[in-house]
Design brief:
The protein is built from 13 helices and 2 strands, in the order αααααββαααααααα. It is mainly alpha-helical. The protein has a two-stranded antiparallel ribbon. A hairpin with a 2-residue loop joins β1 and β2. The radius of gyration is 21 Å and the shape is globular. Keywords: Membrane, Transmembrane, Transmembrane helix.
């Protein structure tokens, strides 16, 4: 068996580049001028940006398999593991709430949902599932969740309508969030990280755990890479086929969206594992590894630093000054906006690098 503690450079790098991509698309120079691929699909459909969050949840699933396999095999008391898992999930959730509160800390207008909050829920559910079930049960449960979500979203009439609706703010998930999700919602009447749409997001984590099972199996490294890529292709195709009756939609995290992005994550991980861990082509991976070593910390820091780098009260806004200078030398406004996003990713790389060089790894 592959040693559970053996680190995959490909996985570490994939985690880091995913976080870097999150920062890149979240912090353009101006939201008024962004290249289409760097935006989420407005509703149905998918862009390159829409793959980023699912990739991170997929990596969370893979990491769960690597973190807990040896402990499960050694018969470690589950009570201690449960306690640590719950505490970690609470920490991530609370940090997510903190990011939603800054800079004004107005608890009367707090948004409870969010990216870190969804990560916390997916981690909690998937980790507990991993400790108590095998890969077959996890696969069956994941498939069942996706079918259930599809049927619920398309067959249950949306309250106030005589049929199921799948429009922004007018669908079963949005209706449930209105009654279940506390606090304000990102889009007023609905939230892309809402309660009901987190259910299929759990399956993204489960797909990652299944990939982790494969990477920890007794198969040869070449077989593992081949299987990862070979499994990913039919998953993507199934998602595209399913999309003919249930649209690909990141905001609702529809079942086809889960499969298309999850299958793509299988393919990317398999290809990266083959190139980096098998062939040893590690050039260029250091940036990803450095970002990935303190992934959530860097994500949080990016939100905090934005109070400085996107503050109009500081030198008229550093982003605004950058855009003026860039367009002043003839660059298009869209290019200038993207370049500032790249600059901001570089700014966040500095503390990530300093932490890495000092062997400081902040784990929530």
């Amino acid at each position: 068996m592959t040693t559970p503690h053996a680190r995959l450079i490909s996985l570490d790098a994939m985690r880091g580049f995913t976080i870097a991509a999150m920062i890149l698309v979240n912090y353009p120079g101006t939201w008024d001028h962004v290249y289409g691929p760097l935006l989420h699909a407005s509703w149905n459909g998918i862009t390159v940006t829409d793959f980023i969050f699912p990739f991170f949840l997929f990596i969370v699933g893979v990491s769960i398999a690597f973190a807990y396999t040896k402990r499960v095999r050694s018969g470690a008391p589950k009570g201690d593991l449960y306690r640590k898992i719950v505490i970690r999930a609470i920490k991530i959730f609370v940090v997510g709430l903190f990011l939603n509160l800054i800079p004004y800390f107005d608890f009367s207008d707090i948004r409870v949902a969010g990216v870190l909050q969804r990560i916390a829920v997916v981690f909690l559910a998937c980790a507990l599932l991993f400790l108590n079930t095998g890969w077959k049960t996890q696969a069956y449960l994941g498939a069942g969740i996706l079918v259930f979500y599809w049927l619920a979203m398309t067959l249950i009439p949306t309250p106030g309508f005589d049929k199921a609706m799948l429009e922004p703010g007018i669908n079963l998930a949005a209706w449930m969030d209105t009654y279940i999700l506390p606090g304000k919602m990102w889009e007023g009447t609905w939230d892309p990280e809402g309660f009901f749409s987190t259910l299929p997001a759990l399956v993204t984590g489960i797909l990652g755990m299944l990939a982790g099972h494969l990477l920890l199996s007794s198969k040869t490294p070449q077989e593992k890479a081949n299987y990862l890529m070979a499994i990913g292709v039919p998953i993507v195709l199934l998602g595209l086929l399913w999309a003919q009756v249930f649209p690909i939609n990141k905001h609702l995290w529809t079942s086809p969206f889960t499969l298309v992005t999850g299958g793509a994550a299988f393919i990317v991980l398999g290809a990266t594992y083959f190139l980096v861990d098998i062939l040893g082509k590690k050039r260029g991976t250091s940036v990803g590894i450095i970002f990935g070593a303190n992934a959530i910390t860097v994500y949080v820091l990016a939100d905090v630093l934005s109070l400085i780098f996107y503050n109009d009260q500081i030198l008229g806004g550093l982003n605004n000054q950058f855009l003026l200078a860039a367009t002043g030398i003839g660059l298009s406004i869209n290019l200038a906006s993207m370049l500032y996003a790249i600059f901001y990713v570089s700014i966040n790389f500095i503390p990530a690098y300093l932490l890495f060089k000092r062997n400081i790894f902040i784990k929530l």
